[in-house]
Amino acid sequence: MLVIALVFFVCLGALLGIALGYAAILFRVESNPLVDQIEAILPGGQCGQCGEAGCRQAAEKMVAGELNPNACPPGGSNLAVSVAEMLGVSIDVADQDKPLVAYIAESQCTGCNRCYKACPFDAIVGAPKQLHTVIKDVCTGCQLCQKACSQGCLSMVEVQPDAANWYWPKPTLPVAV
């Protein structure tokens, strides 16, 4: 009896697997491969800072030319350059703001867990009713945690230059007066 049940469920699983495979081929939705490539390099946090509902919509608008390649603040200038190269357009990233990272004033944090739940990148570590802290290497500066903090103990600070993320100031020419 056990063998009959086992054979039945194996056959049922195989039949349903074949049916799902056929349905995937039959109902496949064709999409623009360039949109797929751009979506793959976007951060994927669905933060909405670009003004779109998610990264897929932002990628579609970038390909259509309705959104600038540097519209994604968490991605920074490296992402903007990559997207611009994929789209074949040129952009000026010299005037972009410096990258931000979240900072929690731990003396004011009550452990309400709102910032932890709001972070789409899992950059905040903590537990309910305990102090929270930010993993600076993971934080993209999307500011969703700052909006969610009811205590006002979370702020955005510039990333401090170190060996991993240093930058030179933009060169300027002296102006003769």
From TrEMBL:
Q: Which UniProt keywords apply?
A: 4Fe-4S, Cell inner membrane, Cell membrane, Electron transport, Iron, Iron-sulfur, Membrane, Metal-binding, Repeat, Translocase, Transport
Into which EC class is this enzyme placed?
A: translocase
How does the cofactor attach, per the note?
Binds 3 [4Fe-4S] clusters.
A Pfam family per the record: FeS
Q: Which domain of life is it from?
A: Bacteria
Q: Which residues form the 4Fe-4S domain?
A: 30-89
Q: Where in the cell is it found?
A: Cell inner membrane
Q: Where does [4Fe-4S] cluster 1 bind?
A: C47, C50, C55, C72
The residues listed in the UniProt record as binding [4Fe-4S] cluster 3, with positions renumbered to this chain, are: C119, C139, C142, C145
Question: 4Fe-4S ferredoxin-type domain: from which residue to which, for each copy?
Answer: 100-129, 130-159
Residues bound to [4Fe-4S] cluster 2: C109, C112, C115, C149
Q: What is its EC number?
A: 7.-.-.-
GO molecular function (one): electron transfer activity
How it assembles, according to the record, is: The complex is composed of six subunits: RnfA, RnfB, RnfC, RnfD, RnfE and RnfG.
For this chain, the family text in UniProt reads: Belongs to the 4Fe4S bacterial-type ferredoxin family. RnfB subfamily.
Q: What does this protein do?
A: Part of a membrane-bound complex that couples electron transfer with translocation of ions across the membrane.
What is the recorded name of this protein? Ion-translocating oxidoreductase complex subunit B
